[in-house]
Amino acid sequence: xxxxxxxxxxxxxxxxxxxxxxxxxxxxxxxxxxxxxxxxxxxxxxxxxxxxxxxxxxxxxxxxxxxxxxxxxxxxxxxxxxxxxxxxxxxxxxxxxxxxxxxxxxxxxxxxxxxxxxxxxxxxxxxxxxxxxxxxxxxxxxxxxxxxxxxxxxxxxxxxxxxxxxxxxxxxxxxxxxxxxxxxxxxxxxxxxxxxxxxxxxxxxxxxxxxxxxxxxxxxxxxxxxxxxxxxxxxxxxxxxxxxxxxxxxxxxxxxxxxxxxxxxxxxxxxxxxxxxxxxxxxxxxxxxxxxxxxxxxxxxxxxxxxxxxxxxxxxxxxxxxxxxxxxxxxxxxxxxxxxxxxxxxxxxxxxxxxxxxxxxxxxxxxxxxxxxxxxxxxxxxxxxxxxxxxxxxxxxxxxxxxxxxxxxxxxxxxxxxxxxxxxxxxxx
Length: 429
Ligand SMILES: *Cc1c(COP(=O)(O)O)cnc(C)c1O
Fold this sequence. Notes:
By secondary structure, this protein is an alpha/beta fold. It has helices spanning about 1-5, 10-15, 20-25, 30-45, 55-60, 90-100, 120-130, 140-155, 175-180, 195-200, 230, 260-265, 290-300, 300-305, 310-320, 325-330, 335-350, 385-390, 420-425, and strands at about 70-75, 135-140, 155-160, 165-170, 170-175, 185-190, 205-215, 240-245, 270-275, 285-290, 355-365, 375-385, 395-400, 400, 405-410. It has a seven-stranded mixed sheet, sandwiched between helices. Strands 11-12-15-14 form a four-stranded antiparallel sheet, with helices on one face. Helix 3 crosses helix 4 and helix 4 crosses helix 5. The site of pyridoxal-5'-phosphate has 14 residues, from helix 8 and strand 8.
């Protein structure tokens, strides 16, 4: 035993071995060293023989330097927060590559003078949302709301309907965020109903703005009423709308989802939303609306702490100006095409001996958008035991388990990935 332990190749010798040279240059020494040490440990425990150490290191090296990995989204939830929400378009991915080096982020190449950070995104937003006089971008939707509350309402009041005191997810509550900025909340109405008079009697000299929060992840039905932006604009205080979901313009697939263009046309002073929900871009927070308000947001010291990075600017600009993003494409795909893909996959898998069945399915937008809306979809279903091996496969496939079946909904998987999916299922047998 002691002898065979002594034969385990040393770390230095392994790191210098020609077999590992490519890995060291691609992954860097620390990652390779880490893999070496874990394999040496196994050899010391007698789990593998000393002669197989190099082979085992090669087999256990990770494919990349990041632990984040691509996951196929078979959950039937288009925007899944745990899966990083919207997948980027090819144009946005290419923009990320460009922006990754040194860029003209804050440089005017014509004059050589300092340029305006994010100017191109502002212009792209203005073209997409003509009713917005100005636009500003921050880190995410919550940051957009925090900036608006801090810059416009610190020490003053935000008037908000009780039915819109929303918890977004993972314990994140909009009212807590607002109060953390030093603004006071003035709740009006009841859980199910609020009237214009409720707002009218709450608004006073201390009111900074009325906030409407889109109930983006639940539906209230029955004896309900809310007050429109058009009615609220008559109260002579700014109306800020947190739409969350990030639809910039009306979308025929989601007729009840609020959009920035329409809300601003109805008289909202400011609309905030996320970049990585229905807009289909990178994580970002957008603030669109009145020029004077946006200017005061930009000038507030907190804006510097919430500012977006060059990668986000690049990916968002490409999402706004380039070809339709995957999220929007998927939202408008036909159920017939989805069923065709499910049948084709199930037939191929069945021919290889996998008990796969094609079924109709119901997908959802998820991730803070279009609650209660069902999207006609199709799924490939398998015995439940497949779920775990798919989730731990390469690439991992996240499915939905229901009624003892592992359901891979195709709604949020691009058709060009069907072959990867087929291979992943075969490997999960
Ligand atoms: C998602 C959401 C947010 C938070 O946006 P993030 O980009 O996740 O920070 C805020 N408000 C509403 C209504 C949302 O749906």
